[in-house]
Specification:
Layout: H1 4-7, H2 10-24, H3 29-58
């Protein structure tokens, strides 16, 4: 079984680009790519935030430091 991307040739890529241009038009492509990029960055930010929240929840709670007070010396 061969990987799907290994089967694509230059002719296939050109054909896909032509079909995309016909469907969306040359004016719409930059807007689509911009929204795709911002969506990907939001997705990565969400993953990073979720990972940090998971790490905070799974970390052991910090033990409070007890202050020691010294009593005044009697002279």
């Amino acid at each position: 079984m061969t990987p799907m991307l290994a089967v694509l040739s230059a002719t296939h890529v050109v054909l896909v680009v032509v079909v995309v241009l016909l469907l969306f038009g040359a004016q719409k492509i930059p807007e689509l790519m911009r929204s795709l990029g911002s969506g990907m960055s939001e997705f990565k930010k969400g993953l990073r935030d979720g990972e940090q929240a998971l790490l905070r929840e799974s970390a052991p709670p910090a033990t409070p430091v007890q202050e020691t007070t010294t009593s005044p010396k009697s002279e």
